[in-house]
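Hi all, posting the design record for the shared folder.

TITLE: backbone redesign
STEP: 1 of 1
STRUCTURE INPUT:
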């Protein structure tokens, strides 16, 4: 990036010419108001270096753009709901269409959006096609297309089921000396690799570990080498905070592979929960490369080595082990081959890829520290061209700091108590007293426990101040399974009510908890395909939230009861189901009732609470 700076050695008028050049560049990009002043030249974001000034400005405007995008989409959603245009319009606004004085989507080719990160994560899945002996694992929710790229993308990759692997098939058959898959394919992908109930041959696991570390294997004869990369893909059973609190991010692996020596040989852990569920609109209807043609390009790049390219800008910490550094460099080399095969990358672009490569390895190493206490925690950082130390964190570390660094068999309360005891400078007798059951009570007043009771409640029509949280919240608290029975969840507004119920459950539950919501409803004979599409959309929206949403049609056609049951022992009988609100004023897109249930006018309805067991009748 070339920007003007004052330099006394420049020819007369040189500084003015460079300044005008930058202003012209700015004007060429911008069509919004107040673009006469280039913010980079203003004192508001000035820092010690030009690079830091630019980074500070970019961060500021990225936040402004994201907020404006959120507001515009929210306004669109309000108007679409108000005028019933759900079948004709969508609320999404592309980042490029956000109008601001400075939109990062148009400045120097840098977007920095979630979609760009997702695109780079998708590129991560292709690294095994361009890097020899690269070991990648991707675990995440169902439906994100984890195995699709290995079955459809290249004729040089082989996708096999995790349960079909044998030593002769994968490595070499001793009876005839024929080499296995690693000798024929560039990539061997193991589908459905996760599953704690699965078993694997110990000898196979040992040979795999040796091959992943040394690029060779032996079955009692001569050692043999191969260049095939391994990719392991599978589904997770729980959401991220649940895994971080109760186990680790590798919890879904079979016990033979949930082994620190095997995991340490993985170069990168791709967070499959950040990849969007595959939908029809993601497939292009335009032109593109024939897959075989692109596959040959990638295969040709396997013989290249781009791992030293970042060295001109950055230096990876010397405190990181050789295995960690090799993993980072191999990931970095693969990303550069895929995104910048011509070597046109800038320093800023290299830094983003370097951070992604280090994050992918850090995710592996941090989980190893949880699984095996002999693995120390590692400070993943690099040194910039300005000599500044820059740390790397994972997204999960930033989102769930209360769980991320837990050690095995620890929970947040116990860990905080241990830290408090370690730092205590009080007398020994006081310490002993603190550890007693009486003294461990929290200093703040304990939350009052409200006893829930059975009952029948009638709500008069045209009343306000009622919400799902008030009438359902206390009774579904702590439930891990909720069954909603309503034969008339058929039309858009009825399915929207169901979505708001799901939102209420998400807001109520701790982020690390898993809740299964199951709907039993009747088919809409007039447009059952649209009904299916909307219900499936709710299931897609719940991916990664800790909510598993499923639904089924009641084929009897005789069901009329509407109720909600929980596995904590409560049954909530509803005469109207979830359809308790009157239709909004359709011409008032800014009505508070559109967004806040408390401000809606209700229909007349009743609710009956019935205790089906003696458990679960108290909530905090």
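Okay, here is what came back for every position:
SEQUENCE:
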């Amino acid at each position: 990036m070339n920007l003007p700076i004052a330099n006394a050695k420049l020819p007369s008028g040189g500084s003015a010419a460079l300044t005008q050049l930058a202003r012209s560049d700015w004007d060429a990009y911008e069509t919004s108001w107040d673009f006469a002043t280039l913010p980079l030249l203003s004192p508001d974001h000035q820092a010690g270096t030009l690079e830091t000034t630019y980074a500070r400005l970019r961060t500021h405007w990225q936040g402004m753009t994201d907020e404006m995008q959120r507001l515009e989409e929210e306004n669109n959603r309000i108007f679409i709901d108000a005028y019933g245009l759900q079948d004709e319009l969508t609320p999404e606004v592309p980042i490029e269409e956000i109008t601001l004085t400075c939109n990062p989507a148009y400045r120097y080719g840098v977007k920095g959006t979630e979609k760009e990160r997702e695109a780079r994560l998708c590129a991560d899945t292709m690294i095994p096609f361009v890097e020899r002996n690269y070991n990648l694992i991707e675990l995440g929710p169902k439906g994100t297309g984890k195995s699709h790229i290995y079955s459809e993308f290249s004729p040089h990759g082989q996708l096999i089921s995790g349960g079909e692997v044998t030593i002769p098939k994968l490595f070499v058959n001793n009876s005839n000396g024929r080499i296995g898959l690693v000798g024929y394919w560039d990539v061997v992908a193991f589908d459905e690799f996760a599953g704690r109930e699965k078993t694997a041959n110990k000898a196979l696991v040992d040979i795999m570990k040796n091959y992943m570390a040394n690029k060779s294997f032996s079955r009692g004869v001569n050692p043999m080498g191969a260049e095939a990369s391994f990719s392991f893909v599978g589904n997770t059973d729980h959401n991220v905070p649940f895994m971080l609190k109760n186990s680790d991010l590798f919890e879904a692996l079979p016990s033979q592979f949930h082994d620190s020596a095997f995991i340490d040989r993985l170069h990168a852990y791709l967070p499959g929960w950040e990849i969007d569920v595959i939908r029809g609109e993601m497939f292009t209807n335009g032109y593109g490369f024939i897959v075989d043609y692109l596959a040959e390009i990638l295969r040709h790049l396997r013989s290249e080595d781009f791992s030293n390219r970042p060295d001109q800008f950055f230096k990876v910490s010397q405190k990181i082990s050789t295995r960690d550094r090799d993993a980072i460099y191999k990931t970095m080399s693969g990303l550069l081959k895929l995104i910048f095969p011509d070597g046109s990358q800038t320093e800023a672009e290299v830094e983003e890829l370097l951070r992604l490569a280090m994050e992918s390895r850090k995710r592996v190493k941090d989980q190893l520290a949880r699984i095996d206490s002999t693995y120390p925690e590692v400070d993943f950082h690099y040194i910039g061209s300005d000599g500044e130390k820059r740390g790397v964190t994972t997204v999960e570390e930033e989102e769930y700091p209360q769980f991320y660094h837990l050690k095995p068999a620890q929970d947040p309360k116990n860990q905080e108590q241990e830290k408090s005891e370690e730092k205590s400078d009080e007398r020994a007798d006081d310490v002993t007293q603190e550890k007693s059951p009486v003294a461990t009570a929290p200093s703040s007043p304990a939350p009052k426990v409200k006893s829930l009771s059975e009952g029948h409640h009638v709500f008069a029509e045209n009343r306000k101040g009622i919400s799902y949280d008030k009438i359902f919240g206390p009774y579904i608290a702590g439930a891990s399974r909720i069954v909603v029975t309503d034969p008339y969840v058929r039309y858009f507004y009825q399915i929207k009510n169901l979505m708001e119920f799901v939102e209420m459950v998400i807001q109520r539950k701790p982020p690390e908890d898993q809740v299964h919501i199951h709907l039993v409803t009747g088919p809409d004979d007039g447009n059952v395909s649209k009904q299916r599409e909307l219900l499936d959309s709710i299931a897609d929206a719940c991916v990664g939230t800790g909510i598993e949403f499923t639904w089924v049609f009641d084929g009897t056609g005789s069901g009329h009861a509407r109720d909600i049951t929980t596995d904590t022992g409560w049954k909530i009988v509803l005469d109207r189901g979830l359809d308790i609100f009157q239709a909004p004023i359709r011409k008032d897109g800014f009505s508070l009732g559109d967004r806040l249930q408390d401000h809606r006018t209700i229909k007349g309805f009743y609710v009956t609470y019935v205790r089906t067991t003696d458990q679960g009748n108290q909530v905090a």
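COMMENT: Residues 263 and 364 are 7 Å apart (CA to CA).
Let me know if anyone wants the other runs.
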